[in-house]
Amino acid sequence: MKSYRQFCALSRALDVIGDRWSLLIVRELLISPSRYSDLQRALPGIASNLLAQRLRTLEDDGVITSRAESAPVSAKVYSLTAWGHGLRGPLVEMARWGAPLMMDGSGDDHTRGRWLVFAIMALYPEPRELPDDAAFPAVRLRIDTDGDSLLLVAGDSGVHTSPATDDPEVDAVISGDSEAVFALLAGQHTAPTAVSITGNEDALRRVRSLTSMALPATQTRTPADHG
User: Which residues of 24-56 are buried (b: 16+ CB within 10 A; e: fewer)?
Assistant: First the structure.
């Protein structure tokens, strides 16, 4: 893209990551390092030549890096540089700003279970943001949604989610489509048939306690309320 040519930190940042699709590529690499084919599947709608161009530009600018891997097949694997990882905080805050826009449902949008990894980063406050007398309940959840399995771990260090790479030991399992699972984790009312939660009663109590702490559950204003 052409430079804005403004001596401004935001303008300089947009010169690097302001192209269409660039931030969504960063989102994917914040979730996990990815092969080119992984990124194609995770970014429905992007043309192959445009994805290749964006990856080259982001790598040239030092936001991402790539390495060759031979197993299970020979391929480049893309990941964020330390500088690229610095986008995590700004993107989580942007996702928090956008989370209320998801409350009306997915409509005809594409959905991917793995996108909940990033959405969950935005749903829950950091431990330092909690009142002094509040703490996240200790709970480990497996989330099966839209063909993906995720691991959510909550506790004193906050709420962390990642793709489940094996069969992790968990307290409860949540199953459902990503729209219904997002609504549940956001502390919204969800039809009992939309999401399945299995686990012992104590684990289910901790799940309910966790979802009640989600930012959308504790906020009453919506984008429409702001006029």
Answer: bbbbbbbbebbeeebbeebbeebeeeebeebbe
What's the chain's Rg over C-alpha atoms? 19
Question: Does 9-86 carry CATH code 1.10.10.10?
Answer: yes
What ranges do the domains of the chain cover? 9-86, 110-218
Classify residue 101 by its DSSP letter: G
Report pLDDT for 222.
Answer: 61
pLDDT in tens, 77-91: 999 999 999 999 999
Joined tokens for residue 168: 């992790």
**Both ends of the chain: CA-CA distance in Å?**
33
What are the tokens at 210? 């966790």
pLDDT of residue 44: 96
CATH superfamily, region 110-218? SCP2 sterol-binding domain (3.30.1050.10)
Instruction: Tell me what pLDDT residue 191 has.
Output: 64
pLDDT digit string, tens, across residues 42-57: 999 999 999 999 999 9
Query: CA geometry: angle at 224 spanning 222 and 227, to 5°?
Result: 125
